[in-house]
Amino acid sequence: MNATVISFDRSVRRASMMVFGALTLAACDNDRTVGPSSAAVPKATMAKLSTRMSYAKWTVADMNNVPVGGAVFSYDDGSGVVLVADNSALDLDKTPGQFHVKAPNHVASICPVTSPKGWVILALNVCYGMPVAAGQTIFMGTFGANPQFSAYWYTSDGSTLVGPAAYTVKAVSGRFAATIGDDDKNDRWAGLGSLWIQLPAAGDYEICQVKAAPGTALANPACRTVTVTLGDPAYANIFVSN
């Protein structure tokens, strides 16, 4: 039986569902002149440095820090606002969910305006800006995204997370039913004992443990119901299998 020690404080674990937008500077300049800070830099060299291209980068990611593609941002490099869609011509990084754009005027201001399809960016329409030194690349931050509709829960033996267990997830309306096994294709949360499923719509869902983790019995109670709302993962609590 595989197990991972964990604290079951709901508020801490609930917060882990969200990766909030950050303002982190990660500049690197391998061509920076090395020498005493008081050393004079020839004007010709300063002019050359000031014309070197700068860049800004940022990411949209889920709770596992996995990039989520398809967002659209407004972007201003000091020459006016343009829209940058993920993997568009202005986006130099063709990895879905990762943005890399030029900052020729050495400033960068970004604002998420459209979430990826099926997702909700937590800091939608919240803008960030910062200067970009000539020739440098800055990391503007990671914008956390939740599925539009989802639920998450844990499997425990009473003291640690255990797995793999399997569950059914059914809409009370009868319009949806699925089976999810720990770390299978329907489970977006990596790691045994933690499960997270994307759902098609808001509403009430019944989640039932149908297969216990190895070496444990079915949870008691084996079923519980959660209410799913837009952009807010529903917490189905901890299924305890002794």
Structural Rg: 23 Å
* The number of domains: 2
Main sheet: strands, sense, barrel: 4 strands, mixed
User: For this structure, what is the CATH class of the largest domain?
Assistant: Mainly Beta
Number of strands: 17
Strand content: 35-45%
The CATH architecture of the largest domain: Sandwich
CATH superfamily caption of the largest domain: Immunoglobulins
**Overall 3D shape:** elongated
End-to-end separation? 12 Å
What is the number of helices?
2
Arithmetic mean pLDDT: 83
What do you see in this structure?
The protein is mainly β and 242 residues long. The chain has two domains: 130 residues, Immunoglobulin-like, CATH 2.60.40.10; 93 residues, Immunoglobulins (Immunoglobulin-like, Sandwich), CATH 2.60.40.10. Helix content is 6%, strand content 42%. The protein has two helices and 17 strands. It has a four-stranded mixed β-sheet, with no helix packed on it. The chain has a four-stranded antiparallel β-sheet with strand order 4-3-6-8, with no helix packed on it. The protein is elongated, with a radius of gyration of 23 Å. It starts with a strand and ends with a strand. The relative contact order is 0.19. The N terminus is likely disordered.
Features:
mainly beta; Immunoglobulin-like; four-stranded antiparallel sheet; 2 helices; 17 strands; 42% strand; disordered N terminus
